[in-house]
Amino acid sequence: MDHFFRVKLYVNDIEKSLLFYEEVIGLKLYKRNMHAVRLNHDQFSLLLASDSTLNENHYFYDRKERGMALN
């Protein structure tokens, strides 16, 4: 299936984020590796990547602490 809408988010904790998007939002785990997980629902795909993978040249590198935090 083709996905028409894809989002990539950098997160501090892959496991907590995965639990949130599966249990609260209802997305289904599609693939995972050490540094990222991909979740799908219909034609939507969400990639959660560890913010530890950002190098100092990435445009989000100095913004790692900004945004919304879920506890």
TrEMBL record:
UniProt xrefs under Pfam families: Glyoxalase (PF00903)
Matches recorded under InterPro entries: Glyas_Bleomycin-R_OHBP_Dase (IPR029068), Glyas_Fos-R_dOase_dom (IPR004360)
Domain Glyoxalase/fosfomycin resistance/dioxygenase: 6-51
SUPFAM superfamilies: Glyoxalase/Bleomycin resistance protein/Dihydroxybiphenyl dioxygenase
Domain of life according to the entry: Bacteria
Protein name according to UniProt: Glyoxalase/Bleomycin resistance /Dioxygenase superfamily protein
Organism this protein belongs to: Bacillus cereus 03BB108
